[in-house]
Amino acid sequence: MRLARWLVLLCAATAWQAAAQTWDTSGNGMLNGTYYFREVAYFTNTSTGALSQGIALYGNISFNGGGTYSINCLVMDSQYGAQQAYTSTGTYSIAASGYGFLSSPIYTGDRVYGLVSGQGIFVGSSTESGFNDLFIAAPLASPAPTAASFKGSYWIADMDTANGVGSMFQANPDGAGNLGNVTLTGYAGTSTVLTQTAAAVKYTFSNGAAVVTFPSPSNATLIAGQKYLYFSPDGNFVFGGSPTSWDFLVGVRTASGTPGFGGLYYQAGIDLSDIFDTYYGSLNANAGVAVGHQRVNDVFNQYATGYTYSETYAVKPDGTDGNPYMRYVVGAGGVRIGSGIGPYLGIQVALPAPNFSGSGVFLSPAGVVNSASSAPFTAGVVPGEFVTLYGANLAPGTETATTIPLPTTTHNGVQVTVNGLPAPLNYVSPGQIQVLVPYAVGSTIARIQVNNNGALSNAVTEFVNLTAPGVFTNPSGGVGYGIALHGDYSFVTPQSPAQVGETVSVYLTGLGTTDPMVPDGAAGPASSQTNNTITADIGGLAATVTYSGLAPQWAGLYQINVTVPSGVTAGDNSLDISGPDSYAAEALIPVGTATAASASAAPLAAAVRKPAKFSPRARRLMPRLAPAK
After folding, report:
1. Mean pLDDT by 10 residues, the chain (629 residues)
2. Among 462, 484, 480, 451, which residue's Cα sits nearest to residue 374?
3. Which stretch of DSSP H or E encloses residue 621?
4. Which of 142, 154, 346, 478 is most exposed, with minimal Cβ within 10 Å?
5. Do the beta carbons of residue 474 and residue 481 sit within 8 Å?
6. Is residue 8 within a helix (H) or strand (E), and if so which, with residue range?
7. How far apart are CA 445 and CA 435, in angstroms?
8. What are the DSSP calls for 142-162, one per residue?
């Protein structure tokens, strides 16, 4: 792989600046005191996906607010078959956003990654460690919950991974130890709905935790035996599971009136379908559309993948919602839980994020998003990626770059550094900045800081990945039709759709380094190639990528030429882009009923070797982009 001599010199000159960064720990105080927790880890046969070992830890974890914790709990390991007492100590690092990691209670050297919600609840998963787990911890309420305080209406989802069963039910505790008759609906690995009525369900309390006993029916069982339930301090969220198995329950108190669902959420969950995976991440919900990110580890890979997606939602007055894959309930406090629909079993919890504010030049700790897809901050950053920074007092006014290479200092005195490297600026305003991540960012952590005429913002840390594809869309924001051009440089639209067999050019960011490399903020060369292999699906079918590199004459813009595969249904189709550590499924591409002439790819092949003659409208739509709204 060849690198230009200037790049070698640049890397040598800036090596001291791009040295390894440490994770922000200014949020360590978000975890402080004694918590109830449950972690369930699953070890599987990587050939068949069958569960080979399950470990459940549950009990107390105490955080000192400064980066260390201690555990006093019970552990149930399928290889030993009996409960054992377990104590341990460890460390944690939490950023101002609530995003961070704990040293693993299970394996030395591993970590549990996750986020602390606005309610102080930590949800996470050991995605980078090569095994699947789900970890939830909530502060102990004071005074501790009792049988008398457990009353009202709750929705609870259960994922029994050991038996391949998922269910959901409504519980109505009466404050006197009775749930009464509970009706569950669920699935046992298929799309066939199973129903079970658990009669005269009872509960007791011990040390602030509920012990709920479900009778064992003679017919097929969705749930049976004892389940321990732990409560958030406000009582709106519950979680737990069996003391003798490897299931996980999450639940939410029913809201009074139609619950709201909007803003930034932190999420984690388990998926059990054709591929078993666990994940953590975040999502932004607004006006019926959510853009989300999950950091996923599945049983067939020893590495994590960043998955970005969009979903629509319409919460009913009773808090229920759903799609073909998941039943959702939004409850009190805006908490959302999900239960998978067979054969796509799983559970999910999404908790409102903390509120962020600051004085002076303030960069929101969760305010670093992909400029094309709007993928939230847990997606991390990538060399050469356009990202949008949100905050307050970031600039004295509004300014848009008018020259290439993009400047690293604006006329109104604004700079951004990433690991000490000056970052090219495309747009600045008091509330947001669009910036290009330097190619030589290095390290696994990026430290981002804004300089507004000598006044420095707080620093925000992000993980650095190889790729984080985001397709630019019209309208902007990542949801809708991807910006794509036919061979004659006209737009692909519903009125002028792509055709089966046609090769179209799609414009994106977040594909990482290229060969040859270009200086930060400089125009793309006549032809380049991404160092990372980029693939595409259209309508769920693999599509051939004939070119993946920088768009000629554009600063920081990537282009892929992709051929619409046969078998794609006419109409709006998903346009999914993936790299070695990422998968993005947000944008759409309209496909027509005709079959394109095979020669349609020829002008596109030429287009990556000579400047495209874009119309004024095309230049308005494509970056240099208008700022995200």
Report:
1. 25 37 96 97 70 88 98 91 91 98 93 97 90 94 94 96 91 95 92 92 96 82 94 96 95 94 97 84 96 88 88 95 95 97 94 96 98 97 98 97 95 96 98 98 94 98 97 93 95 97 97 96 95 97 97 95 96 97 96 64 30 36 35
2. 480
3. helix 616-621
4. 142
5. yes
6. helix 5-14
7. 17
8. SSPP-TTT-BS-EEEEEEEGG
Residues in CB range of 588: below 8 A, 6 or more apart: 480, 481, 482, 572, 573, 574, 575
For 62, phi then psi, to 5°, come to -115, 125
Tokens 């999950």 -> residue: 294
- The closest of 580, 553, 552, 575 to 564, measured between CA atoms, is 575
Structure tokens at 267: 């999420």
**Cβ-proximal residues to 366 (8 Å cutoff; 6+ apart), any chain:** 97, 99, 264, 282, 353, 356, 376, 377
Length of the chain as a residue count: 629
Tell whether the torsion through CA atoms of 539, 544, 549 and 554 is positive or negative. negative
Residues 6+ apart with CB under 8 A from 142: 233
Task: Please give, one letter per residue, the 3-state secondary structure of 356-397.
Answer: CCCCCCEEEEEEEEECCCCCCHHHCECCCCEEEEEEECCCCC
Q: Largest Cα–Cα distance in the chain?
A: 77
Q: Are 346 and 272 in contact (CB under 8 A)?
A: yes
| Tokens describing residue 457 | 């913002």
Q: Are 560 and 505 in contact (CB under 8 A)?
A: yes
Q: What's residue 614's pLDDT?
A: 38
Q: Are 275 and 107 in contact (CB under 8 A)?
A: no
- Tell me the two tokens of residue 201: 């369900």
Please determine, looking at this structure, whether the domain spanning 28-139 carries the CATH number 3.30.420.
no
Q: Locate 565 and state its tokens.
A: 């595969």
Q: Do 56 and 245 meet the contact criterion of CB atoms below 8 Å apart?
A: yes
For the chain, the distance separating the N- and C-terminal CA atoms, rounded to the nearest angstrom, is 39
Class of the CATH domain delimited by 17-22+356-463: mainly beta
Beta carbons of 468 and 306 less than 8 angstroms apart: yes
Q: Which helix (H) or strand (E) holds 513?
A: none
Question: 261: closest CA among 222, 210, 314, 217?
Answer: 314
**Using CA atoms, how far apart are residues 324 and 191, in angstroms rounded to an integer?**
11
The residue type at 311: E
Q: Output the six-digit token pair for 559.
A: 């282009």
Distance CA 353, CA 97 (A): 8
| Nearest one of 531, 494, 491 to 511, comparing CA atoms | 531
